Amino acid sequence: MYPSRFSYDAPTSVEEVIAILDQNGGEAKVLAGGQSLIPMLKLRFASPARVVDINGIPGLEYHRVDPDGTLRIGALCRHEDLEFSKILGNFPTLSQASSLVADPIVRTRGTFVGSLCHADPQGDWSATMIALGGKIIAQGPNGRREIKARDFVLGPFVNALAFNEVAVEAIVPPAKGKALGGYLKLERRVGDFATASVAVALDVDGDIVTRAGCALAGVGGRTIDANDAISVLVGKSLNSESIKEAAEAVAAAAEPRTDHRGSSSYKRHIVETFVTRILSNIANSEQKAA
Amino acid sequence: MAPLDELKIGGMGASRRRVEDNRFIRGKGRYVDDIVLPGMLHVEILRSPVAHARIKSIDTSAAWEVPGVRLVMTGETMAARNLAWMPTLSYDTQAVLATDKVRFQGQEVAAVVADNPYIARDALDKIVVEYEQLPVIVNPIQAQSPDAPLIRDDKENQTSNKIFDWEIGDKEATDRAFAQADVVSKIDLHYPRSHPSPLETCGSIADYDRSSGKLTVYMTSQAPHIVRAAVAMVAELPEHMIRIISPDLGGGFGNKVPIYPGYVISILASILTERPVKWVEDKSSNLISTGFGRDVYLEGELALRKDGKILGMRMHTISDHGAFFADAQPTKFKIGLMHSTFACYDIPTGHLVSEGYYTNKAPGGVAYRCSFRVTEAMFFQERMMHAAANDLGMDQAEFRRVNLVRDDMFPYRTAFGFLTDSGQYEKCLDVGLEAIGYSTFKQEQEEARKRGKLLGIGISTMTEPLGAGNSREYDIIGIKMFDSAELRVHMTGKAILRTGAKTQGQGHETTWAQIVAHELGIPADDIVVEEGDTDTAPFGMGTYASRSTPVAGAAVAMASRKIRAKARKIAAHLLEVSEEDIEWELGRFYVRGNQERGVTIQDCALAAYSNVPDGLEPGLENTSYYDPPNLTWPFAAYFCKVEVDAQTGVWDVLNFVAVDDCGVRINPMIVEGQVMGGLTEAYAMANMQYMTFDEEGNCIGANYMDYLIPTSWETPGFELHEVVTPCPHHPIGAKGVGECATVAGPAAFVNAVMSAIEHTGVRNVDMPLMPNRVYQALQTGQDVSGMPPVLSD
Ligand SMILES: Cc1cc2nc3c(=O)[nH]c(=O)nc-3n(C[C@H](O)[C@H](O)[C@H](O)COP(=O)(O)OP(=O)(O)OC[C@H]3O[C@@H](n4cnc5c(N)ncnc54)[C@H](O)[C@@H]3O)c2cc1C
Fold first, then answer.
1. What is the pLDDT of residue A33?
2. Helix (H, G, I), strand (E, B), or coil: what is residue B480?
């Protein structure tokens, strides 16, 4: 596997990156963890003239929770940093997903933000971000702008960044009330992309759901935004009836296709099962806690 | 004098650390791709994007223009040297570079030789090939159809896609057995195509020296001597001018037995450019174009008496060999050793009918970690046994117990004519049943069901014919299947051992030395083992089909014994007594009746070069050829307990017990490693690892995202047990163990899952038992079988 010829830059500031992207008019690609870009180069699915390596830029490895509860994830925060993080207690959706992304080797290099930028319909992090109502901070020649995660993924492998923008940070807003959630993924083995996966994030006041978020991976041409479907839970408590209603609504929002991983009806069934399981787990552990 | 402690010198039974690991774990292994020769060029191969098409034109002019390109080759280049087609190991022909048609996706169409692989790869993009697409055949059922397109229109007298009909057994006696049966039990299975996928792909460096006429080829080959013979025939070069060197191999699993177009292309490229030429395929090329395993439809039935006794069996196989019949197997047996099926059971009669077909898929039904189709034979056997026990309403273990060949029946002639010679089948069964907790399982299963959980247990027992040949019955393209060892003991008592086998992970460098240590008392650390260089190693048939220990390992013991016989003469001379008065104990000769008066094997070695008795040739060397009197027959009994998630179809292994009787264990640690590795591959087949194709012949499995190989993460743990029944005819009693687990393992997993779900009425789910298939079976109560490229909704 031999990629086509490309030139390589390793700038040390975001401004330099933007300048290089700007000068190359769409012919340059950012290299973060390389866990998607390098395979694409080797398979010659991507043949950019320039590769701009951002790994030498200091100060982007962080993830931290602000005093107001906002989670901020820098462009070079690796999957593994989140997997072993001690500060994701209020973000169960993320912490559950963190050990299901790829395999332990890939997780040491791949980045959270890079994964969002890659916009793989089977990518795990995009689903969690859409469910959590997260945002991406893009920086370009004219400064910074915020893009909602649900508007960030435009299609398979297409994101909302302009050619001269770089994603510098991902933001997850704090929950109003108590944050509950979960992530389940059907994979055939570690490192396999999802046959179907489900991210759920709830804000709960007492036992009443005040906000419900959900997104799906592997069951559509892009990450499926199922926030509207799961909103049937808002204003309700979790019980077998509301869970069933939500699971059916979310399953209906999936757009699975039959392939060697399974039939579309099987995948839709898995979505329904997983929504049910996540919500039942939440209901059970809340009951135990009470 | 205290006798030598055999375990201390690394002899038989010592779990000696693998000596080869020292260099592998330090990154000092030397694989083909590590070798760099001065002035070396690189070749990259253009492969067909479609499965069946006529080539209308190939335009290479733009590729020639790329700076750094030295040679662009097409079928025409090859044809000019009579090399467009090459013979396969099954008396067929295979295209090296296509001249007329492409017959599978990934077939070799053109090649570029350049200063480095990047340039060669860039130039491939500049070659323009015009294809006229033809209808595609992706399975043998389609191939049978009267209006199927003729894939091999290159062959004279080939009027259909059938390759062979083959049968064995006694049809009439079998018909009679079925007429008398109380119960007839049937099963219909597909053993899916699977790729051995060694970590190291295939590759070669050809180095032709015009001045001397010598061709040296570094090559990823499990059988370098066969390659030398084949190259001599194909390239019309004299055999003494050909040297094949197979350096460290990163796994083989049967994938590195066949001869591939890439090897031939690199050889001709070196002859044409007079420079060394390296070809190393990438992972995708390896997966889509080189020898796959399996891909057989297995259908059959058992004639049964009410009390569980099997009266007879019928089996019908339809195999898919891809576009060229390039299986590596003994000439006599078109479908390998499929007729070893049911060899561990006492059945009076049977009849096996086999048909082989061409399809538009990659060629080469290689023996993927098994002895020539034995994996399919035993999978059929154990799935059939499982179904038959259920049809009889009999307990799975009891049904096997009733039919297993008993210890007092050896030597036992099987219904298809094999002679099995030893074993303690029932004991192995009992060891395993005890370990898995079989007696309480039924109750466990019922209680679990009440809690909504689906538990299942599966059994698989088998004996595998290993160590082809004897040479009377076994040959590959006419070359008889014996093997060899050459042992040279140096003056200081150190030694070098070479064999005609070729290690690729089995640990020959460790275990061969242990055999010598056992026979001569020379510490294993004092013996270096070398294999794979045809200029230095004695002629041998290579390593596959678990034949190394049964054949080459036996040759090692025989060479050692001949050296001991000569050393005895030297000892008599040194001790000044007659040979008859000499006794042997490990590492030492002494005078009968006076154990203190003796000489060590090292003393004899020194004397062999410095103080030889009159009339004896100096030196202490021997080359032995070993032609085994029979196959060896290891036995395995495997037990698997699973839990199935009824809502998703996902299954987890709760417990797996393996009982192996591979005869005498040379190095128990290595034996266990082989069993663990084999079981991992068995788990892979049962669960995820298969190569499928869509209707257009596109290979779904061209990379490791689609072709799934389990990691240590999901592979279950295995509990290993041993029973030892020495092989009566092997010099050290060993039977071979490299493949038992891959062969017997898959049915244990599948039977376990079936046991968990068959209350719904399902009889069979074909491998791999992916969650969606298991779920579908649970939902519908219907079999999920055959090989739909894509499951429809
Ligand atoms: C074996 C294997 C298994 C995998 N399994 C999974 C899985 O199960 N689930 C899953 O979700 N993912 C999986 N992945 C993908 C993995 O998560 C990648 O790490 C991730 O998709 C990309 O992150 P990266 O940092 O490696 O990005 P890179 O590969 O460096 O870049 C990916 C793309 O995003 C762009 N990009 C990256 N960072 C930025 C930025 N800051 N601003 C603008 N553009 C940017 C790049 O230009 C490129 O187009 C797997 C990968 C491998 C190799």
1. 98
2. strand
Quick one: pLDDT at residue B787?
55
CB contacts of A258 in chain B (<8 Å) are 790-793
Architecture of domain A7-53: 2-Layer Sandwich (3.30)
CB B45 within 8 A of CB B285: yes
Q: Does residue B298 sit in helix, strand or coil?
A: strand
With a cut of 50, list the residues of chain B below it in pLDDT: 789-793
Using one digit for the tens of pLDDT, what is the confidence trace for B325-336? Answer: 999 888 889 999
* End residue of a domain, out of B573, B596, B626: B626
Contact B671, B660 (CB under 8 A): yes
CATH class of the A63-172 domain in this structure: alpha beta
* DSSP conformation class of B424: -
Q: Which residues in chain A are classed under CATH 3.30.390.50? A: 178-289
> What is the reported pLDDT for B777?
96
Domain that holds residue B735: 293-468+630-780
Q: What is the pLDDT of residue B479?
A: 80
A260:B705 CB<8 A: no
Report the pLDDT averaged over residues A60-66.
Answer: 98
Write out pLDDT tens, residues B610-647: 999 999 999 999 999 999 999 999 999 999 999 999 99
Q: Does B621 touch chain A (CB under 8 A)?
A: no
Looking at chain B, which residue has its C-alpha nearest residue A5?
B118
Start-end of CATH 3.30.465.10 domains in chain A: 63-172
Q: What is the mean pLDDT of residues A259-264?
A: 90
Q: Which of B772, B774, B791 to mutate to test the interface with A (most CBs of A within 10 A)?
A: B772
Q: Which residues of A touch B118 (CB under 8 A)?
A: 2, 5
Specify whether the CB–CB gap between A125 and A116 falls below 8 A. yes
Question: In total, how many domains does chain B have?
Answer: 3
* Active-site residue identified among B370, B604, B640, B699: B370
What's the pLDDT at B235?
A: 80
| CATH pick for A178-289 out of 3.40.50.410, 3.30.390.50, 3.20.20.100, 3.30.70.2740 | 3.30.390.50
DSSP assigned state of B98: -
Mean of all residue pLDDT scores within chain A: 96
Helix B740-757 with B771-780: angle, nearest 10 deg: 40
Give pTM, 2 decimals: 0.96
Least Cα separation, residue A72 to chain B (angstroms): 31
**Residue B277: which CATH number?**
3.90.1170.50
Per-residue model confidence (pLDDT) at position B193? 95
Q: Is the peptide bond before B411 cis (omega within 30 degrees of 0)?
A: yes
Predicted ipTM > 0.90: yes
Write down the pLDDT at residue A286: 85
Give a yes or no: residue B193 inside a domain.
no
Q: Pocket of ligand 1, candidates A42, A63, A117: which has the most ligand atoms within 8 Å of its Cβ, to mutate? A: A117
Strands of B567-667, DSSP E: 582-585, 588-591, 594-600, 621-626, 635-644, 651-661
The last residue of one of the domains, among B600, B626, B652, is B626
Residue B277: which of B116, B121, B125 has the closest Cα?
B116
